[in-house]
Design brief:
By secondary structure, the chain is mostly helical. 79% of the residues lie in helices and 2% in strands.
């Protein structure tokens, strides 16, 4: 009922505007009444623009929605690529953590037995050994969490790939309405991001980031600046390796692309260049044709007025001729001192 009412109302308004513009606006405009011309043209353009927007958007909205779903699929592919990169870098970070833990344990043992870093005369398990062992155990703890999440990461990656394949398959089902496909794609998108969240939680990159920062900051030993410098050189090198891994993985979080909203008239207009032939055809039907009809009506009224003025002028001239030829004494002209009657051409 709403559609029928709007259609009937639009038809009445369109007919009323065109009827007034052609029947009243064009004659008054031809008589140089400028306000009539302005009112007619503005009315026709306003109604034509409304019809054009409604027709154009109504025809291409399904196609625009399909294009937005395809664009969203491209963004999802980029997100999955970043997630896979994070997973790949996570495997590197696990191996790097093992190397760091082994190296720090080695320096701790060397310091305990030979005072390799402190260069002290006495040997034994001192504060430097305790610090190095603590950092090594911290690396081992993070590596253990990484190993525990390895199975979860593999399962999440498989789930992500399956959901993305479903998304691509649904987008390609053109025999189904885009609005039905859109609802299914929304559900698939949610499942895809849930799997992405599982993968992000399985990778302890936030722990690695904090650990890399701690290694880069180093330690402080009061009164033993030279010893602290040697130790911090070792820790800084390991911190740089972890930071390089974090930087190559793009950080700890992957931006989730927002599922596109249902397109409207404004979104459809922005795709006018993608549907240029249809857009120009609708503009010609709803804009150029009504204006052309009004211009022809205006030119017809102008021609009628010009013909009426010519006829009036011709009648006035004939009246003047007839009144001149009916005089008893025709007009005289002086020539050689004598009066002579003028001929018809001379009189005219």
């Amino acid at each position: 009922m709403k559609i029928a009412s709007l259609t009937l109302g639009a038809g009445i308004v369109s007919f009323g505007v065109m009827h007034l513009a052609v029947s009243f606006g064009a004659p008054y405009a031809a008589k140089r009444f400028r306000l009539a011309a302005i009112a007619s043209i503005v009315g026709i353009m306003f109604v034509g623009a409304g019809f054009a927007l409604a027709t154009f958007s109504g025809n291409i909205l399904p196609d625009v929605a399909a294009l937005r779903m395809q664009d969203h699929g491209t963004k999802l592919a980029q997100e999955i690529s970043q997630v896979n990169q994070v997973a790949t870098e996570a495997s590197r970070s696990g191996a790097t953590l093992g190397v760091i833990a082994s190296d720090l344990h080695g320096w701790a043992a060397c310091e305990q037995s030979q005072s390799c870093l402190s260069k002290a005369a006495a040997t034994g398990r001192g504060s430097i050994t305790v610090v190095l062992e603590g950092l090594a155990e911290q690396a081992e703890a993070i590596q253990q969490q990484y190993e525990q999440g390895e199975a979860a990461r593999e399962h999440a990656l498989e789930e992500i790939n399956d959901h993305f394949a479903d998304y691509q398959r649904i987008v390609g089902q053109t025999e189904i309405s885009i609005w039905e496909r859109r609802n299914t794609l929304k559900q698939t998108d949610n499942l895809l991001h849930q799997a992405t969240a599982k993968l992000s939680n399985a990778v302890p990159l936030h722990l690695i980031e904090r650990y890399a920062e701690e290694l880069s900051n180093g330690i402080k030993l009061s009164g033993r600046a030279d010893v602290a410098q040697r130790i911090n050189a070792i820790l800084s090198e390991h911190g740089k390796n972890l930071e390089a891994i974090l930087e190559s993985s793009g950080g700890t979080a992957v931006m989730r692309p927002i599922f596109p909203a249902r397109p409207g008239v404004g979104e459809a207009v922005t795709h006018a260049m993608d549907f240029l032939p249809l857009f120009l055809l609708i503009i010609a039907i709803d804009g150029v044709l009504p204006i052309s009809v009004w211009i022809m009506a205006y030119l017809k009224e102008v021609w009628i007025i010009e013909q009426a003025l010519k006829q009036q002028k011709y009648k006035s001239q004939n009246t003047a001729k007839n009144s001149g030829s009916g005089n008893a004494t025709p007009p005289q002209a002086y020539k050689n001192g004598k009066t002579t009657p003028l001929d018809g051409d001379a009189l005219e």
